[in-house]
Design a protein that fits this description.
Length: 264
């Protein structure tokens, strides 16, 4: 087993495996999400979900890997512009590797967004012809937003497809405002979280009481963003809740856990 770097500072070392070295069990970092895993990132708006998958896309493309990015929310030209901004903020020259990113525009195409067989046939063509190893869908919620009763069947179909094509994949899913902030529940219920290999939950909270100010060590009126890995079938993982920061340049960083301690 090996890890796939995400390009998100502070995240990759949160996944690990345990090895036997001379009769002693030793924890070894994976240095990224487990290869061939299908992960879900869920949270309400303005918590950094899309930024995280854009950083993942830029990181892998900059290393020479082909990445299929299925955009369901924003038309492809807007996503391309955002990826370029993300690359600049990460210190990369986007022109050097932009051809490694294949955008599939399900936001502008009704047939791709509403017809899963057509979408998967398109993705299969892209994977075969461009030798794609990584797939991002932002967001899967957009594929069942008018038919949530089918969410589980749609997500299962997407998950099985990623496995059959040996993809390391990240899905983005939206939370309803009534959902608990740090649960893996997303629009469509627990469908996404139950099917995929692991879920990363992002959240934000307004500091509106002295109690929260004391817990988070932040002044009243501030917003704190939080991050938690809610299960991973394929490797060990840090189970603590961490602070999450979105920098002024639009880069997500995973910071120290609540209550202190190392990021590791």
């Amino acid at each position: 087993m090996y890890g796939v770097p995400t390009g998100i500072e502070g995240l990759d070392d949160l996944f690990f495996i345990v090895k036997d070295e001379k009769g002693k069990l030793v924890k070894k970092t994976l240095g990224g999400i487990p290869a061939y895993s299908v992960f879900n990132i869920t949270g309400v708006s303005d918590t950094g979900k899309s930024l995280m998958v854009e950083q993942f896309t830029v990181e892998q493309a900059s290393k020479g890997s082909k990445v299929a990015f299925i955009t369901v929310e924003s038309p492809a030209n807007f996503v391309a512009a955002s990826l370029q901004i993300r690359a600049t903020a990460m210190g990369y020259n986007f022109k050097d590797f932009e051809d490694n990113i294949i955008l599939i525009d399900a936001a502008s195409s009704y047939n791709l967004r509403e017809n899963i067989p057509d979408l998967l046939a398109t993705l299969a063509y892209v994977i075969q012809n461009y030798k794609v190893r990584f797939t991002v869908i932002d967001s899967v919620t957009g594929l069942f937003e008018s038919k949530e009763m089918f969410a589980r069947a749609i997500v299962r179909r997407l998950f099985n497809f990623m496995k059959s094509w040996y993809q390391t994949a990240i899905f983005v899913s939206q939370k309803r405002s009534g959902h608990e902030e740090l649960t893996a529940e997303a629009a469509g219920g627990y469908a996404v979280g139950h099917i995929v290999d692991g879920t990363m939950v992002v959240a934000k909270e307004l500091i509106d009481s002295q109690y929260k100010a004391k817990i988070y060590k932040k002044p009243l009126g501030d917003i704190v963003r939080l991050f938690r890995i809610d299960g991973c079938r394929l490797s060990g993982h840090d189970t603590r809740t961490h602070f999450l920061e979105i920098t002024e340049s639009g880069i997500v960083k995973i910071k120290e856990p609540i209550g202190g301690g190392d990021v590791e």
